[in-house]
């Protein structure tokens, strides 16, 4: 019989299942939603990754925007080469040559101390130290890096300058020498850590080949290992130099702060003033919009250009080191001992262009050292030479431990009597001579907590994008350069940017919120780097297995990659907390007041903070010695505890990873 029912058109050999169009439509919608989610997550992580570049651009923009009027008024050459800095005089003068000279001289003195000690300690840890000694030396170097700069400055002001005054019979020990010694100690951890990594990256076969040919252990180190690591050692020196150039609070406290060029130039007992010290001393008292205000931003522009140049150069060398120690690069270069020397020569030449005087001093010092080494080496046996060299390395390691011990002993011994429950909880009184530091402790925790809440999601997101969503290319290179340069920006520059952008332009005022964002920007590179290293530790096979089972990239990252990387991310977070807790310069103009009886009730109010409280007590409040040491001890204990937790987590994490 016929039927009026319409016949469905189907392909031969197939049958139409009831409801199949609905299922197909649902599947397409689900697939599209899944794709949109993946694209949205990728876009979100890209935005977090590009944030470092945007932040660096904003810092440059606001510094140049506020510094340009002084360049227009005075002229770039007169501003840079003028020999008088007196912006508050009857006839204001805005020449920053004495400030540049003071910065370079202090840095040169610091490097003269830190370079030989740092390289010797790095060789000792990598090549000579037994496992037990190495287990002590590495945390000691890390602890030196974790001591807040204001604590270094306090120690230098109380102990170091007094020692110089008595030893050299001068009216004041606040001098170029004091600043160089202190900055040399502060630059040591950077030089040791980077140099040790470079030495460890030299293939083991190089050492074995040298020893098999009859060379002594020292001849192998001096003739094979150190030349093979010379590029990394050069980068370590340049990074240490950048650390010294960008230091603020310690220099303010011990350098004497006289804007003069020493006469004669080698008079290390002369007071000097640096670029960073000028910013820290004068920015808090200047009228906004005045010529003096714009001149200080001009100083910040010069400082930022110098530090960015130094860090770019170091980044280029480290990139060469990374390339050099791949198997392909090793085969192409053979023994690879010519190009590192070329890079070192280029580095000395580039840095020498900053000032003719510095270039001459460096060249003379290098020439004298080389001639002396050649003369001595030709007249002693290989075994005697090895004993002398190893003796120097053991002595260098002992000096580092001795310095750390002296700093810790002095602060603990003199600070312990001040500790009490009242001191830890009460508000200050009598200009900080009495009372306690309770509001400063809580204010520090507020600042650090807000900084982590700001920086952690951005930093983790940036690291996820850089390692999980993109390959090495131009965009990735720009982002990494932005992160590295942001990490090398002096802390005082972050403070000026926070003051210009957050306090004034966005009208946040001097407030907890402005300080939190400024500190968050400063610790962002640390979180990005440590998170990326944690992600690298997860094997690619884990990702491939997840993707093969049908998981999306974001599902793989969230459920497979991130869980085992959490301890590494936590370590980076703790390191960021430690750095933020000990910094003074970024919050100097953005967040803090010296004395406040009550805690802030909102993020728009200023707070007390331990580093700033110690700085004012040490430099402006006579008769407060016990509370000075008590505050220094509490700050040091807080930061040291934070870094100790990070070290413990990292050690346990490394032992527990068994892929």
TrEMBL record:
One Pfam entry name: BPD_transp_1
Descriptive protein name: Phosphate ABC transporter permease
Keywords for this protein: Cell membrane, Membrane, Transmembrane, Transmembrane helix, Transport
Gene3D superfamilies: MetI-like
Membrane topology value: Multi-pass membrane protein
Keyword Metal-binding: no
Domain of life: Archaea
Domain annotation ABC transmembrane type-1: ranges: 100-314, 441-646
NCBIfam families for the chain: 3a0107s02c (TIGR00974), phosphate_pstC (TIGR02138)
PANTHER family, per the entry: PHOSPHATE TRANSPORT SYSTEM PERMEASE PROTEIN PSTA-RELATED
InterPro entries: MetI-like, MetI-like_sf, Phosphate_PstA, Phosphate_PstC
GO cellular component: plasma membrane
